Amino acid sequence: MKTLKLIPDNTNIQFIRRRIVAFALSGVLILGSLGLYFGQGLNLGIDFLGGILIEARTDGPADIGMLRGELSGLNLGEVTLQEFGAPEDVLIRIQRQEGDGDAQQAAITAVKSRLGDRVVEYRRTELVGPTVGGELREAAIYAVLASMLAMLVYIWFRFEWQFGVGAVLALLHDVISTIGLFALLQIEFNLATVAAILTIAGYSINDTVVVYDRVRENMRRYKVMPYEELFNISINQTLSRTVVTSLTTLLALIALYVFGGEVIRGFAIALIWGVVIGTYSSIALAVPLLLYIRPDRGVAEERVEDGLPAVQE
After folding, report:
1. Beta-carbon neighbour count of residue 161 at 10 Å?
2. Which of 89, 190, 253, 298 could form a disulfide with 45 if both were Cys (CB 3.0 to 4.6 A apart)?
3. What are the tens digits of pLDDT across the range 269-287?
4. Cβ distance 25 to 283 under 8 Å?
5. Which DSSP symbol is given to 226?
6. What is the DSSP annotation of 127-195?
7. Nearest Cα residue to 198 out of 178, 227, 170
């Protein structure tokens, strides 16, 4: 039985030679993402802003336009409705009302009264206060920063500090570009999205560690081989594993996006983007950055392995 190989064994793509193109592309991506974040902003969900969230089921396919018209007369401020998974499921978001909890409950009662028998079941009603939303937003920022710091320490101890710098820069690139994607598409940014970003960070660092492991192994073998050649060999040697892992993960995530329903669609989009950008950054950024940091590889040894001399001029 033949083994499926997406990348031939003797592949020798000159990734390091094309690093300037990759750096320029990533620079545009980062600047664009920051511009979108500070200019357009994120479409923050009720998790962070506070407000009322109602999930309702209608008798038959929901007429979103008619329901929106009914609720617009209640003067509750910003009210958004969207189909939520099945055609008869509707997600209603209402901005936080002025006043205490009684004002929020009054708004919920008014909505249910106005919709009347058009809704056969209220499957979920949530109320998120502004204080809770602010605390959640702060906790989310701390969670992302703490995870990146922990990964920096992990890479530092496992390899050397130079590798840690390269890995964290690539990780920052992945996180910022993911936030930029959400700012561009105005997909709701909620706690599930934060969970997705943390997952992306884990996936990206795992991909980077695989390539770095091979770089370190080759640094021990070929002490004086030029860095550019050594890094290029290392990337090509792990390319097959990287591509197969990414593609199989993407297949699962695309299935999740298509069949998972509206609740996890934003989560799935973030992860799909994260896998693509994480694979790119581990190959085109994390390793080429080492060319400028130049990790120490010790004293050259006189030996020949795998047809590649340890000492090269």
Report:
1. 13
2. 190
3. 888 998 999 899 988 898 8
4. no
5. -
6. EE-HHHHHHHHHHHHHHHHHHHHHHHHHHHHHS-HHHHHHHHHHHHHHHHHHHHHHHHHT-EE-HHHHH
7. 178
Read off the pTM: 0.74
Closest C-alpha to 231, from 297, 172, 170, 176: 297
| Cα–Cα distance for residue pair 139/145, rounded to 1 Å | 10
Amino acid identity, position 102: D
Look-up: residue for tokens 């999205």?
A: 193
Q: How distant, in Å, are the alpha carbons of 259, 269, 270 from that of 47?
A: 24, 19, 17
pLDDT band at 23 (very low <50, low <70, confident <90, very high): very high
Residues 6+ apart with CB under 8 A from 231: 15, 16, 215, 287, 288, 290, 291
Name the β-bridge partners of 92: 54, 81
Q: What are phi and psi of 99, to 5 degrees?
A: 115, -175
Residue 289: what are its φ and ψ, rounded to 5°? -60, -30
